[in-house]
Q: What sequence folds into this?
């Protein structure tokens, strides 16, 4: 009755959670500013912006470009098209067209409502303007709204394409590993149920405001739950198969398999959760919220592997493995001392037994050489225009804008200062070579801003007309500085950093925000997070391993090996990103995410291996325990590594630079960890050290079955 009740409970949860796959966009946000810490200048300015504008609308820059000078008739047609644009759903307001000095282009600004419908709004703007544009004129929709729309469109395949690719990859691997149909179905059902229930929980937590969800976090959640649940399931399947060889009763086999699998699975899940929860120390909410979101997924992955899968396999019995069903052969198992010591992994284990030092020294040397290439990784941030891979209307529009107008048009530097400091702050902007013009927010001007000169805000109308009064919010006025360079360029970033430094002296308390400032604050926070969280994750995982293995030496060596594996993966990634893919760089969060996933998940394989080695060492001595532990876990660890690598590689189908880089680093790193570190380096090093590996536990003081040491 219990297995049936557990299966029914999970199916009900999956049935309720399934429809939420198409609703994640309702509770997610891809706006960078919403992930910055509250203390960041860009965050404070963004919050003030709604009060100055009277709405939370987001600007879109509309660019009309031609190969020849725009005629008055063409400009009139463009103006007519702009006048009709407010009929598009989501468009709040539209400015008049402004011709460029070279006469080859015109630009206008539209404010659009942010939210889940921004992609549709941007697409509709582009479609309507292109339909009404004069012949020979190309229309682009760029600026903040255009880039956000591109990013949202890039994440659009997460609900369908990513999940399908990941599941197909896992299913094919499981078929090849087990040469069975029913068993892969049971394992995939376990992973899918874990994911749907996790998604249901995360959706409501995000809906209530407890968690912040983005397309990036959603994609990682999908992959992490499928990969982890499958890994844990494979460990249980391995134990259950062993027990079926010595127990005819399925219930006895299930209880004994659970007893052997529960410790490594719970320990592995707890280690991953502990590593992920270290992200709560992050200043960036995109990082700090990933920890709880992913941890919820891991909790359900562990629960599904320890409740749903055992219930399914109990119901199926030996038929789950058909046509390679395990035989009931206790005599054979007894002759093997409990293990089937044959095959490729047995031969590898015996090779390590004969030449342990040569093997670990050689593998260490190779990994160190690969890790040296990490200096080639450019992880200082990437332009907003390069976040989406492939075609990008917003990127093309930014290029066209830069040819005919100041590169920062539509994405100005925003400076909030006390009203009394308006002119002092304006003079700082006017004196900087990276700023081509300065204006102040005012409701009295038709355009919403009034130009500011060295003599103060400029007047509109005939001589003697008073200058419009600036809009004042909580004693602050808002200045806008047009950047000479593209808002996401290095030159623009240097300009904003200069302005912050100069304004600190000329107008103390001035806040500098805008697109460029947001990117700067995000990168600075990412670097801070990386330098803080990586050591904390290592310390937490080290403590967990010490408690699990009841030793000090083994956990230290395992953590060091995992760090070396991560460094090697990052080094290879640096060479591939720069030499093959020609990526423009990497976000500072890429090494942090790669580290958290590779170290936390790599420790899984350490736990799978070393808990079994310890179990065998108690009965057969440390060195023989290493040989036997590797022989029996080699297959399951390799299968788990292939599955995890395949699931993370599936992230590459989403055309977002960050996810593509994480996909490569984690997929390659897992394979390196599985086939080199966990199969060669760790067993060989452990064998060479001998029983001292368990110091200071009692296991280090006994005699090894192969002799002292």
A:
């Amino acid at each position: 009755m219990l297995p049936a009740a557990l299966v029914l409970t999970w199916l009900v949860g999956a049935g309720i959670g399934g429809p939420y796959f198409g609703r994640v966009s309702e509770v997610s946000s891809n706006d960078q500013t919403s992930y910055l810490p509250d203390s960041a200048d860009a965050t404070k300015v963004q919050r003030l912006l709604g009060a100055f504008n009277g709405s939370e609308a987001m600007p879109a820059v509309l660019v009309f470009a031609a190969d020849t000078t725009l005629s008055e008739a063409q400009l009139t047609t463009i103006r007519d098209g702009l006048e009709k644009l407010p009929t598009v759903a989501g468009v709040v307001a539209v400015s008049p067209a402004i011709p460029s000095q070279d006469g080859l282009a015109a630009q206008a600004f539209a404010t659009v409502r942010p939210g889940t419908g921004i992609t549709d709004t941007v697409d509709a703007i582009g479609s309507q303007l292109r339909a009404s544009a004069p012949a020979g004129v190309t229309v682009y929709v760029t600026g903040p709204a255009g880039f956000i729309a591109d990013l949202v469109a890039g994440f659009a395949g997460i609900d369908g394409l990513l999940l399908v690719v990941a599941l197909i990859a896992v299913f094919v691997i499981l078929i090849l590993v087990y040469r069975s149909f029913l068993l892969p179905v049971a394992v995939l059902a376990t992973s899918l149920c874990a994911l749907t229930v996790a998604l249901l929980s995360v959706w409501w937590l995000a809906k209530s405001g407890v968690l912040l969800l983005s397309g990036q976090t959603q994609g990682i959640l999908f992959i992490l739950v499928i990969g982890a649940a499958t890994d844990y399931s494979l460990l249980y399947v391995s134990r259950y198969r062993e027990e079926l060889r010595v127990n005819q009763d399925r219930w006895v086999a299930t209880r004994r398999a659970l007893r052997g699998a529960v410790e490594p699975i719970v320990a592995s899940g707890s280690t991953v959760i502990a590593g992920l929860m270290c992200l709560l120390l992050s200043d960036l909410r995109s990082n700090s919220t990933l920890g709880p979101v992913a941890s919820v997924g891991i909790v359900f992955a562990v629960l599904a592997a320890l409740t749903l899968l055992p219930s399914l396999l109990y119901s199926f019995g030996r038929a789950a493995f058909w046509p390679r069903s395990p035989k009931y052969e206790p005599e054979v198992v007894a002759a093997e001392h409990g293990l089937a010591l044959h095959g490729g992994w047995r031969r590898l284990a015996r090779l390590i037994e004969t030449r342990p030092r040569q093997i670990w020294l050689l593998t260490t040397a190779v990994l160190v050489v690969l890790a040296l290439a990490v200096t080639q990784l450019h992880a200082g941030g990437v332009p907003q225009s390069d976040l989406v891979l492939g075609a990008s209307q917003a990127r093309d529009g930014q290029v066209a804008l830069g040819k005919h107008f100041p590169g920062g048009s539509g994405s100005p530097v925003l400076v909030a200062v006390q009203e009394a400091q308006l002119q002092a702050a304006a003079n700082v902007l006017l004196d900087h070579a990276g700023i081509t013009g300065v204006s102040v927010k005012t409701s009295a001007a038709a355009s919403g801003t009034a130009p500011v000169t060295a003599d103060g805000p400029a007047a509109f109308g005939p001589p003697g007309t008073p200058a419009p009064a600036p809009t004042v919010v909580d004693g602050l006025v808002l200045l806008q500085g047009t950047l000479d360079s593209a808002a996401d360029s290095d030159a623009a970033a240097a300009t904003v950093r200069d302005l912050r430094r100069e304004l600190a002296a000329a107008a103390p308390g001035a806040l500098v925000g805008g697109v460029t400032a947001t990117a700067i604050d995000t990168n600075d926070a990412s670097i801070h997070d990386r330098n803080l969280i990586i050591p904390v994750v290592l310390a937490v995982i080290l403590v967990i391993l010490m408690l699990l293995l009841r030793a000090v030496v083994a956990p230290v060596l395992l953590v060091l090996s995992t760090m070396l594996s991560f460094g090697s993966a990052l080094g290879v990634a640096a060479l591939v990103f720069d030499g093959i893919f020609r990526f423009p760089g990497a976000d500072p969060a890429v090494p942090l995410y790669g580290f958290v996933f590779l170290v936390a998940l790599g420790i899984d394989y350490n736990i799978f291996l070393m808990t079994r080695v310890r179990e065998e060492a108690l009965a057969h001595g440390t060195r023989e325990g290493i040989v036997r532990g590797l022989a029996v876990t080699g297959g399951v660890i390799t299968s788990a590594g292939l599955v995890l690598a395949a699931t993370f590689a599936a992230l590459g189908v989403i055309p977002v630079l960050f996810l593509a880089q994480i996909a490569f680093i984690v997929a390659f790193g897992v394979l390196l960890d599985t086939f080199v570190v966990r199969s060669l380096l760790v067993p060989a090093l452990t064998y060479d050290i001998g029983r001292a590996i368990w110091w200071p536990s009692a296991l280090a003081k006994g005699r090894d079955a192969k002799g002292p040491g």
Summary: The CA atoms of residues 21 and 160 lie 8 Å apart. The longest strand covers residues 58-65.
